[in-house]
Amino acid sequence: MRIAIVVRSGPASSQSSRSALRFTQAVLDAGHDVHRVFFHGDGTYNANTLSVVPQDEEDLSASWAALGREHDLDLVICVASALKRGMLDASEADRYERPAASVRPEFVISGLGQLADAALDADRMVTFGG
Amino acid sequence: MRIAIVVRSGPASSQSSRSALRFTQAVLDAGHDVHRVFFHGDGTYNANTLSVVPQDEEDLSASWAALGREHDLDLVICVASALKRGMLDASEADRYERPAASVRPEFVISGLGQLADAALDADRMVTFGG
Amino acid sequence: MAHLLFHLRTPPHGHPAGEEALEAILATSVFEPPLTVLFEGDGVFQLVRSQDVHALGCRDLAANWSALPVYEVTDLRVHGPSLAARGLTPEDLLLDVTVINDAELAALIADVDRVLSF
Amino acid sequence: MAHLLFHLRTPPHGHPAGEEALEAILATSVFEPPLTVLFEGDGVFQLVRSQDVHALGCRDLAANWSALPVYEVTDLRVHGPSLAARGLTPEDLLLDVTVINDAELAALIADVDRVLSF
Amino acid sequence: MATLHLINKSPTRSDALASCLRVLAPGDALLLIEDGVYAAVADSTGSQALLGHVCHALAADIAARGLQTRLADGVRVIDEAGFVDLCVHCDRVMSWF
Amino acid sequence: MATLHLINKSPTRSDALASCLRVLAPGDALLLIEDGVYAAVADSTGSQALLGHVCHALAADIAARGLQTRLADGVRVIDEAGFVDLCVHCDRVMSWF
Question: How much is the pLDDT for E46?
Fold first, then answer.
C-alpha cells in the first residue's frame, strides 16, 4: 500500500514531527511504500540545516534526512511556506540574495501540486501536526 | 514606566508577533520606556534574516528590526531556543560550523538571565504568544 | 479520480492554517478532482462577512475565499451545529454554502477518499 | 526584589513550554528573588509521577522538575480544581506541593509583582 | 492590586478564559486579543461564560474577523493605546494561553 | 467504508475529540496520540466524552506522560505498528486538530 504523510509542525515546537517520523518508520517496517512526505507550513522547519540540537536530544531534522537517504524517500517542502520561514536551497538563496542555503540536501523544495498529487495518488494520506 | 515584552511565537506561525509589535509601538507612542523585548521559544524566529515574505505582506521581522533601530531597543533572543531553531549569529555559525548567520544584526543572542533581569527590573511585563 | 475533502477547523488570522488550506485548494483544483471543502468548528469563522483587515494589516483571506467559485471550487459545506454554537447563521457568511448536520457530515466523511486537515 | 510567578498551563511533551519554563525558572533562581511556581489547567500534568520517555525518546522533563528543590525553588503551588478535573490527586505527583483552591489562587495572583506565562 | 488578564485563544482552543474567570478579582480587567475575541460573539456558547462580566476587546482584532456588529453586551472595544493604559493602570499583566 | 480518526490535542486545548465523537460512524476507529492521550485518563472530565466508546491510544505517548496505570476503561493501548495496521484497514484517515 502507498501511504502519503503530511507534516505541519516544526521539530522544536511540537511533538508532531517526532510522531510523523515514528509513523513513517513503522510504515516502512511493515513493508508498505511511503509515497511522499510533504512538509507544509511550520513543517518546513524540519528541513533546517542550521539548527543545533543539544547532544542529549534527538536531532529530528537529521533523523528525517537519514531516513530519507536510507529509503530514498521523497521529502518535499512547500515552497510558499518555506520562503516565509527562511528555508532556502542554494538557488533560492541566490535568487533572493540571502547569504546561504538553509535546507538539507535530502529535502526538495516544490509547490503544492506535490501535495495534491500525493493526495490523489496515494492509497492513504495521514496528516501530523496542526 | 518601564515595560518589558516577551514574544513566544514566530512571525509566520501565529498572530502574536504582530500583536506584540503593535503593542510595543503603542508603548513607545504613549511615552513609556520599552525595557527590553525578549524573544523566547518560537519567538526567536522573529530575528530571521533569511525569510522571504511576499511583497503584499508585512515582513514582521524587518518591522521589528526597523523599530529596534529607530528607538534603540534591546531586542534579545534566547540562545537555547535560538540554537535549536537554527537562529545563529556569526560567532555561533562559526562555532558550530554552519554556513551562515541567520540572525539580523539588530537582535542580540543572550541567555535566560536577560529574561529574569527584565522580569525583576521592569515595572510591567507583558507576554505574547504561547 | 480520488474525491478529496479539505477540512477546515482553524479560525482565521490567529494562525496561518486558513491561508495554507486556501493555497492547497487552489493548487489541487488544477487537477479537477471531485473536491469538497468543509468548514467545521472554529473553521466556520473563515467565511464570516465584513472581515476588515485594514487596521491589523494582515492578509485579506476573506477576499480569497470569495474567489473560490471563480476557480470552480463550488462544493462548500458548513457544519450547521458549529455555526449555531458560534452565534452565526448562513446569512452571516460571504459565500453560498450548503449547511449540513451531524448525520450529513458523517455521510460526507464516509463518501470521500482522502482528507486534508487544516 | 520583585516577587515572580511562573504560571504553567501547558502539558508536557506535546509542546516545549514546560522545558522553556524550567530553564527560565533555573536561570531566574540564581538571582534569589521571591519565586512561586504555579501548575494550573493542563500544566498539572507536568508533575505526574512515573513519566517514562524511554520509548518516545524525548527529553525527560520530569527528572528536571524533581530537581527543583536542589535549586532552592520550593514554593510550588498546584491548583486543586485543575487536578481533580483531570482525575488526579496530590499523591499522583512527583513533588511535594501546596494544593490551592480558586480563592487562594486569586490571592496569590494579587500578591505577586510579575507573571511569566508558559 | 488589580490584574490585567490577557486572553488570546478561542474558547474552543483553550480553557484559558474559563479558568481566568474562576479567579478574576473585583477591580481586575479582562482583555480579549487575537483569537480570544471569538469569545465576545453575541449568542455564542463562548460568550455565555462572559455574562455578567465587563471585558475589553481589541478593535483591530475584531474588525479583521468581521465581528464589529456581532458583539455580546458588556464588551468594550479599545485600541492599542487603550491596551497600554490598562497595562499601566493595573499592577500586573497575566497572559493565559 | 470505515474512517480512522486521529486526535492529537488535549481536550482542554481543542474541541477536536468532542467534535469527532458527534460524527463517529459504526466501524470507525479512534486513535489518541500526543496530547490527545490526556483524554484517556480515568475519572477525568475529558474521559467522560469517551464513555461507551472504544478507543486506541499510542503506548509511547502514554508512557511519556506517566498515564500507564491511570487509563479509563475501553482504552486499548497500541504501538506504531498497530497504528499502521489501523491506517491500512480503514479506508481513510482524518486528523482532527
Answer: 86
- Do B85 and A41 make contact, defined as CB atoms within 8 angstroms? no
Contact (Cβ atoms closer than 8 angstroms) between residue A86 and residue B59: no
Q: How far is C-alpha A9 from the geometric centre of its chain's CA atoms? A: 10
pLDDT for residue F52 is more than 90: no
Q: How far apart are CA B86 and CA A126, in angstroms?
A: 27
CATH of the domain at A53: 3.40.1260.10
Active site residue B78: yes
Report the percentage of chain E scoring pLDDT > 90. Answer: 93
Q: What's the whole-number average pLDDT of chain F?
A: 96
Give the CATH H-level superfamily of domain D4-117. Answer: DsrEFH-like (3.40.1260.10)
| Cα A46 from chain centre | 5
Picking from E1, E19, E95, the nearest residue to D41 by CB comes out as E19
User: Which chains are adjacent to chain E, needing at least 3 Cβ pairs under 8 Å?
Assistant: B, C, D, F
Q: Are B121 and B34 in contact (CB under 8 A)?
A: no
Q: What is the dihedral of CA B20, D15, B101, C17, to 10 degrees?
A: -60
Which among A42, A103, B111, E47 has a CA at the least distance from the CA of C20? A42
DSSP per-residue string spanning E1-46: --EEEEE-S-TTT-SHHHHHHHTPPTT-EEEE-GGGGGGGBTTSHH
Per domain, the residue ranges of chain C are: 4-117
> Taking CA atoms, what residue in A is nearest to B96?
A52
Cross-chain CB nearest to F66 (options D49, D58, D87): D49
Helices B60-71 & B16-29 angle (0-180, nearest 10) = 20
Say if CB D117 and CB E95 are below 8 A apart.
yes
Judge D/C contact: 3 or more CB pairs < 8 A: no
Is C53 within 8 Å of E63 when comparing Cβ atoms? yes
Which three three-digit cell numbers place residue D64? 528536571
3-class DSSP state for residue F31? Answer: strand
Which of A78, A88, A103, A118 is flagged as catalytic? Answer: A78
Residue F71 burial (CB count, 10 A): 18
CB environment D44-79: b (16+ within 10 A), e (fewer): bbbbbeebebebbebbebbebbeebeeeebebbbbb
> What pTM did the predictor assign?
0.98
Residue E82, phi then psi, degrees to nearest 5: -65, -35
Contact A85, A79 (CB under 8 A): no
Fold of domain F3-96: Hypothetical Protein Ychn; Chain: A, (3.40.1260)
A29–F81 C-beta distance less than 8 A: yes
Q: Which of A11, A91, A100, A71 is nearest to A47 (CA)?
A: A11
Q: Which residues of chain C does E63 touch, with a Cβ-Cβ cutoff of 8 Å?
A: 51-56
For residue range E36-62, list pLDDT tens digits in order: 999 999 999 989 989 888 899 999 999
Domain count, chain A: 1
**For residue A78, what are the domain limits?**
2-128
